[in-house]
Amino acid sequence: MAQRMLSSIGATPRATLFARGRSEEEGGITREQSLNSDTRRRSSLPDFLKTVTKDKREGKKLTEFGKWYRTHSRFYFKNRVEGDEGVAPIRFRDHRRQLVFKEKFVSKGGEGQTREYTAVENLLIENGIKRVESARESLKEYAPFPIISYLLEYDRRSSSTNQSRVFVDADLSCSAEELVAYRFDEELWGHSGSKMTVFDETPHSYKTMVVLPLGGFFQERELLMFYCWKKVSETMWVITGEPVVDERYPINDKAVRGQFYSTMVVYVTSPTSCSVKHCMSVDVVLPLPRFIMKGKSMEEAEWVAHIKVFFVAHKSKDNMGNAEGGILGEYFARGFKGTSDWEKVNTKWQEAIEEFRCMNEMIEVYPWFEKIVKHVLINRLVPWQPCGKCLDDVQVDDAERVGKSLPFFVTMRSDPDMALNEWLLEFPCMTELGEREPWFGSFMLALARRLGSGEGRILRRQSLAFCRRQESVMPGVSPRLSIKGSRVQVPRISTMESDNHVIHVGAEGNFIMATMQKFLGVPGGKSKMNAAIFFGYLVPAIVFILPLNNAWLGADENTMFLFVIAPIILFFGSQLLMGVCSAAFKVFLICEDLPYREAHLYRAKFAIATYLALAIPVFIVFWAVSFKIIFPVPWAVLVTLFFTPLCVVVTYFFVKYTCKNPKHLIQPNEFKRFLLIVIFVIPFVAILPLSTGFYILLKGYKQLALVTALSSMRFLEVFGIEWLGLGKVNELTILVLELVIDVFYETHAATLFSGADLGITLAFPPLLDLLGNLGTMAYIYYFQRHDKNAQTLSLIALATREIVEISTSLGVTVVFGSIWLFRKEHYFMIDTVEQHELERAFTMSLIDFLTEIVVLLLFDRVVYSVWRVHLYDLAQAFARAIGFYELFGMICGCVIFILTFLMYHFGGDYFMNFEWMEMDDFDGWCAAMQRNASSCYRTTGGWGFIND
């Protein structure tokens, strides 16, 4: 058992004296079990050690002291090593241990210079010790739970040295006698996979030499040690090690003889704990590279970290304290690092709990405790659910909700201590458990610190996993909690830290932003977003090049339009509305609580409900006019847009009566505000396509004035959405509405390339986009630095706007060109375009596309240097949050809606002709409206209605 536990944290397998001294019922292994596997080692056990073992089993103190010789582990190095700045392969014994150490460099003049940093050893060891190459920079990470304090000294006058010194300071949860026995037994049994020769055995001493396998490219150093230990007083033990210089043993005559000095002082702080001061010096005679000396020195001291875990594993839950709970939590957090699959967690859990007696006792008393720890270790971010039960009433289902909630609180808080405090306040049963088991708080705090570190955030990649923590724009830890009395307060952040410029999510929008943030860095997100955008333009191209001759005209030719084109246009228009309503009504959160298949089925039902809510009123209008006036007639389309609020109301009630979790429903006040914003957006959506006909008829600087006016309208529209929505609706809704505005405007601007009369008019929209993005970045940095939430929203909007500008500049022109090649006679604006104008539009769109890519790369570098996030990664995370299908529906719906109007010419003869107002009978009114609509068609021929 002890062998498995220590090998799981990277230590070499060993059978310890303390484990052999315990009975099987107490969690240890018998002396016979550990010795029967190797008769050679069993015969080498001296008599005095047998006496010590017997006394320990009987509860007697260790009164006999012995001595032993030991061959120190040899140094291996390649003949060719890297330079001073490089790091060659190093042999480490531990692969999951974080060490905090200092390096003291001695200059030529003798003046010391000290440099402090932390090191994280993440070296995968499966079978024994492997050589691992690791870069120097990868070691400079924050270690939230240092196992041992480390001070390493060596000569820095050259790239190689022959002397190194190490000092270790640690507190252990074991008695001094147990520590001495553990140390002795480690020296005797710690050489795994090696041939050990025992000779010169006496009742109170013995000498051993260990032969390790050698390679052709390695040399060795041989360090023969003489150890002794003394009990100076009742509160202090001393273990010393000195080199043996008077004897030479025939193991390897070519080995270089070195010297090893070690002094370990053990202070007794209580009957069950002690403090260790360990000083070690190595002199290998011939120079070795510094990194080898460092690795060997660290290897000599890491047994302190091993023993911490070992003695905690044998304690019962009643004997556990805060220190033991912290070590136990750190062991579990590191042992489950990178595991988010439930089956793997179960497998590792069964292996881990076998090593720890306290965990088995906790599961016996609290069967649901296992469920809590598993869900914390799997580290998936889901909405937390309250549980007000007391400890005795907690069931397995309640434990699942409690365990899933801790990653959420850690995500929302920058301080793991405060996150744990809030978690305990929200769940009284956990507070009561902490009162019964004092070590539970430190155990959960160690897990919370691991969840809040960079490795913990990377662990949230899978499924509903969280995005990586590597100084991202939204680490989800903005509000720091402060406790005043018994109430937790969440203050607003009013300043930006100038040292890292990392912005955070505000207190108002934590939940929505954190929901989106979990997709940062998720593999496959960018490719899926690209696919959604690609099909968003491919589908309109296919729809508009279908051979539907005369389908767009009125009178007797409307059957094809009525039963084919109109349903298609209405469907994709409804999917545009579905994406907006999905973000506003939090459909994505509802689907997270459902199984995979049921979640997709619910989204399909929501899409169908949105389509029917929009299509049924439109076809009622068709039926009311006896199908004599068929869409798209511009006045009728404007009326149809005002069916959108009705569709929003229908989808709201659909979600309200189908959602099983009331927490996901928006409040009535929020719904009313969202409905108001939708009504505010409708006029802009209607004006853009209607202005297309005016643009093609204008000449010179009048076109430039129209483009400037539309750009100003876009700015005012975005400003109005934020003014109406911030603080009233969730931030994701605001971002989706701004995305719709951007897609509509950029799609419309891309269709104007071919109709530009002047070069400045052709280049003006891309130039406005560039100036707008520069202004946005300056505004974010200089004017929003005191509002982290607004800063985050602006960065997301900037990222999505850049992606929209890149895609529309080329995508719309490709659709435009496809129509021109196959069905240009169906569309007024496309049919009136000359070939050289179309070629000029293609050239401009390609230049705009390449320019936008360069701008995106430059902006990405600037944003990453300031806010530590990539714009493209931020855009794909936003696309995942709203759904890739919803993104496809938004783009496809906008393109179809805009290009539908390219067949019409809306001049004064249409808007200023009020003949239909003078008709008294219904048939006359329909005929007047039909004649009025026919004035919009201007084609080259082959049509029933032609205006010359």
TrEMBL record:
| Position of the signal peptide | none
Q: Which domain of life is it from?
A: Eukaryota
Membrane spanning stretches:
529-548, 560-585, 606-627, 633-654, 674-698, 704-725, 762-782, 803-822, 842-863, 884-907
Q: Which Gene3D superfamilies match?
A: 3.30.530.20
InterPro entries in the cross-refs = START-like_dom_sf
| Residue ranges, annotated region (Disordered) | 16-43
Which keywords describe this protein according to UniProt?
Membrane, Transmembrane, Transmembrane helix
Q: What is this protein called?
A: Uncharacterized protein
Source organism of this protein record: Triparma laevis f. longispina
